[in-house]
């Protein structure tokens, strides 16, 4: 089951991950993002060392280290 989070407006978002290659250096980096639908890269839980916060301006969920 994918990790779900509801924003203050009641919209549910699901946590996903993806490995991308950086243009300048060519290094691989893992990114995390929230989407309204469950995709094939959905995560079951928040990665260790991160917590979910909501943007004050938009209300969208974000991951924050700490």
Labels describing this entry:
two-stranded antiparallel sheet, single chain, mainly beta, 66 residues
* Tally of helical segments: 0
Straight-line distance between termini: 24 Å
Provide the structure class: mainly beta
Mean pLDDT comes to 95
- Helix/strand order, N-terminal first: EEEEE
Gross geometry: globular
Give the strand tally.
5
Sheet with most strands: strand arrangement: 1-2-3
Q: What's the Cα radius of gyration?
A: 13 Å
Low-confidence runs: none
**What is the helical fraction, as a range of percent?**
under 10%
Please summarize the sheet with the most strands: 3 strands, antiparallel
Kindly give the count of domains. 1
% residues in beta strands: over 45%
Description of the molecule:
With 66 residues, the chain is an all-beta fold. It has one domain (4-65). The chain is 0% helix and 47% strand. It has strands at residues 4-6, 12-21, 28-35, 50-54, 61-65. The strands form two sheets. A three-stranded antiparallel beta sheet has the order 1-2-3, with no helix packed on it. A two-stranded antiparallel sheet has the order 4-5. β1 (4-6) and β2 (12-21) form a beta hairpin. The protein starts with a strand and ends with a strand. The relative contact order is 0.28. The mean pLDDT is 95.
């Amino acid at each position: 089951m994918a990790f779900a989070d509801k924003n203050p407006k009641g919209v549910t978002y699901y946590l996903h991950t993806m490995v991308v290659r950086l243009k300048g250096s060519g290094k691989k980096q893992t990114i995390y993002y929230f989407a309204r639908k469950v995709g094939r890269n959905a995560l079951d839980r928040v990665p260790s060392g991160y917590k979910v916060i909501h943007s004050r301006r938009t209300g969208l969920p974000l991951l924050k280290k700490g």
